[in-house]
Amino acid sequence: MSRENIEATLVASNANIYYTTGRFFKGFVYIPMGSDPIWFIIKPDIFDKEDDVVIIRKPENIPGKLKELGLELPATIGLEFDTMSYSDIERLKAVFPDSVPLNASSSLRKARMVKTQWELDRMKEDGIHQSEVYRRVTRCYKEDMTDVQFQIEIERILRLEGCLGFVRTSGNLMDINLGSVIAGENADVPSPYDFTMGGSGIDPSLPGGANGTTLKPGQSVMIDMNGSFNGYQTDMTRVWRLGELPSLAYKAHDCSINILRALESIGKPSTPVADLYNKAMEIAEANGLAEYFMGHRQHASFIGHGVGIELNEQPVVMAKSRDILLENMTIALEPKFVIPEVGAVGVENTYVVTSTGLKSITIFPEEIQEL
Amino acid sequence: MSRENIEATLVASNANIYYTTGRFFKGFVYIPMGSDPIWFIIKPDIFDKEDDVVIIRKPENIPGKLKELGLELPATIGLEFDTMSYSDIERLKAVFPDSVPLNASSSLRKARMVKTQWELDRMKEDGIHQSEVYRRVTRCYKEDMTDVQFQIEIERILRLEGCLGFVRTSGNLMDINLGSVIAGENADVPSPYDFTMGGSGIDPSLPGGANGTTLKPGQSVMIDMNGSFNGYQTDMTRVWRLGELPSLAYKAHDCSINILRALESIGKPSTPVADLYNKAMEIAEANGLAEYFMGHRQHASFIGHGVGIELNEQPVVMAKSRDILLENMTIALEPKFVIPEVGAVGVENTYVVTSTGLKSITIFPEEIQEL
Questions:
Q1: 3-state secondary structure of B128
Q2: Under DSSP, is residue A344 helix (H, G, I), strand (E, B) or coil?
Q3: pLDDT for the residue A45
Q4: Which residues have C-beta within 8 Å of that of residue A288, sequence separation ≥ 6?
Q5: Residue A52: is its pLDDT beyond 80?
Q6: A353 - beta bridge partners?
Q7: What pLDDT shows up at residue B216?
Q8: pLDDT tens for residues B348-368?
Q9: Residue A214 backbone dihedrals phi, psi, to 5 degrees
């Protein structure tokens, strides 16, 4: 905040209210530079009054309440320009007519990139639950199932394991149900969303993921199902197969694993994020697999992303990234390949950046497994 | 648009792209007043070129493409101020530096209130699927289940029936998984969200709905599970019970049904929406049930809402509404009561406004059923 001359930030988005309080309420978190945050709560009225909690009816009450608390109004006010609606921001600007409004989205995103030990503990817990679900994936399969039916059984065991059933994402282009199961040619259908993989979905209103393909021999089945168990998330992909796949599919899957091993060792604090992308692309090219890398008919421009409260956080692992890895960042890396007529292959893990390299918190065998 | 002097609208939100095209893509729909919309698509590149489709890389390409098509740039441009982020709107304003930016959110919301026959057909289809799922709810129950376990089995049959597994909502205060199952005292826990009913949820990051309550005799179990099967939605609630409930619960449930019957007959084109709210409140008060109506510890200020592409559309059925019912509006009415220590009771149906009154499209027995 201080680097950007923001004297106070007024947090209003769901993800950032949760980030700054560990709770969720309808209201605002006011964060003056250098002192404790104040929770301005509209509803519900269920908080302990000992906390720094002020009940309000609407945001217009905030300046008066600040004055009652003996606080001066800030000369500059940070607001979440990138996530709050234009109308909401205009309203909040009018609440602080004498404060210069500045965009606080970037500083909040940057703060959230590096996790505290409390956050890392939540995410490790997610990784354990998610792996436990993946251990039961094979049992969800029955012959002649469609990809959708298979996904539904995985959703059920996810939920029974404690998954909240709700995927918190950032931005407009991340509509998704509880994850993505893509099989066979459906993997090669381009999607409008900002996920690495596509699929046509079962309805034009949600054109991504499983599309009703009947699972049959010669197909890969990529499982990228949600890991939200506690307000944080892990992101994890493994691949199953029906019968044998062409050798190209195994070669590409091995290449994905090799890319992860290479990135795990170079992914230390102070490594440019772009180096991870470039190294991955270099290995894919050296193996003659560039045309299948990160899609075939349509290629994603990134191979990974930050993950935490939201499924897609900063940094984005892409060629033009200017971010630098920092200790305790958490990133999901997903070097994947789409093999025409076969499906998608590749592995995704969620990693913590440590002084010795990337440490996976989504531990589960990485080879292609048979259904 | 013409009433608000909007010469052209640039639609960018997911729900409105779907509304104006019946598809979803990353891009924009440009709607000049009085002529056909133009689809500006960033990705995916899978559309027929015969359509009015123009491929772009970024919104800054739009003015040049309009000129190529022989179109003048508009004097005023409608943008979705209420749903697009402040940063996105600032960017689009800069794309049209000589056009006066106006808020198109309201006119789009108003247009979407009244459904076309195509839309009504989709919603009737949703209602049939959702009722089919409710027919199987009793079979999902097993003794000593928790509300969460019960919900998971209902989610599974919803998905097997074709539910997309994704609830499209409007605004920040509508985080939800596939619906709400609330039992016993959990019904009386206030939530921060803009749903009529509360519940604590199973994690502070998603404080709504089922909370792990073990289902036991003397409890009502309110089922308000999602009806999204095709880009549109219906909204429907029914109540089950374990053993017998106190007579107050049955009385309140009957009152909910009586309220619906009364509103169905007065809900004709040209009826003020506020009349529906006031009539419902009048009946609840006449029955001595006001303290339980629309919540007990915390009361919702509305008894229904528009429904369509998004679960919560206009109009909102509340005392201060200035909307007037129009033929082929679709609204969900949910007069509900929270009975302390018992749970929630009441019925919710989705209705079409017709010349003879409200016609339900969520047809299923309304009495409390035994589990």
A1: helix
A2: strand
A3: 76
A4: none
A5: no
A6: A358
A7: 96
A8: 999 999 999 999 999 999 999
A9: -75, 130
Choose among B152, B164, B172: nearest Cβ to A159: B152
How many helices (H) and strands (E) chain B has is answered by 9, 19
Of A89, A90, A166, the CB nearest to B206: A166
Q: What is the mean pLDDT of chain A?
A: 96
pLDDT above 90 (res A3): no
Q: Which of B85, B164, B190 comes nearest A84 by C-beta?
A: B85
Residues B148 and B210 sit within 8 Å (Cβ to Cβ)? yes
Exposure pattern of B218-234 as b/e (b: 16+ CB <10 Å)? ebbbbbbbbbbbbbbbb
Distance CA B187, CA A64 (A): 35
pLDDT digits (tens, 9 = 90+) for B20-67: 999 999 999 999 998 899 999 999 877 665 567 999 999 999 999 999
Length of chain A as a residue count: 371
Q: Please indicate whether residue B45 or residue A70 has the higher confidence score (pLDDT).
A: A70
- Give the confidence band of A205 by pLDDT, cuts at 50, 70, 90: very high
Compute how many other C-beta atoms are within 10 angstroms of the C-beta atom of residue A90. Answer: 15
* CA-based torsion, B119, B120, B123, B129: positive or negative: negative
- This model of the complex carries an ipTM of 0.96
DSSP string, B169-204: --SSS---SSEEEEEGGGGGS--SSSSS-----SST
The answer on pLDDT for A312 being more than 70 is yes
Q: Which DSSP string do the residues of B83-108 spell out, in sequence order?
A: TSBHHHHHHHHHHSTTSEEEE-HHHH
Q: Give the tokens for residue B183.
A: 């039992």
pLDDT of residue A2: 64
Chain A to chain B Cβ contacts (< 8 Å): 168
Residues in chain A closer than 8 A to B203 (CB atoms) = 164, 229-231
Would you say the pTM of this structure is higher than 0.80?
Answer: yes
- Number of other CB atoms surrounding residue B319 within 10 Å: 12
| pLDDT in the model for residue B45 | 76
Residue B30 Cα distances to A117, B74, B336, angstroms = 47, 11, 42
Residue at token pair 């800030």: A74
3-state DSSP helix/strand/coil % of chain B, to nearest 5: 30, 25, 45
Mutate to test the interface with A, among B45, B47, B86 (most CBs of A within 10 A): B86
Residue A262 distance to chain B (closest CA, Å):
31
Phi, psi of A265 (to 5 degrees): -85, -30
| Per-residue tokens: A327 | 């200790």
The phi, psi pair for A162, rounded to 5°, reads 115, 0
Q: Which residues of A touch B204 (CB under 8 A)?
A: 18, 22-24, 231
Distance CA A141, CA A144 (A): 9
Cβ neighbour number for residue A94 with a 10 Å cutoff: 11
Can you say whether the dihedral through the CA atoms of B24, B28, B32, B38 is positive or negative?
negative
**From the CA of B165, how many Å to the nearest CA of chain A?**
5
Q: Span A346-364, mean pLDDT?
A: 98
The alpha carbons of chain B give a radius of gyration, in whole angstroms, of 22
Contacts of A148 in chain B (CB under 8 A): 159
Q: Which residues of chain B have pLDDT under 50?
A: none
Q: How many CB atoms lie within 10 A of CB A162?
A: 18
pLDDT of res. B2: 65
Reported confidence tier of residue A50, pLDDT bands at 50, 70, 90: low
Nearest CA in chain A to B233: A205
d(CA B153, CA B137): 8
Task: For residue A317, give Cα distances in angstroms to A190, A272, A276, A300, A333.
Answer: 20, 10, 7, 11, 8
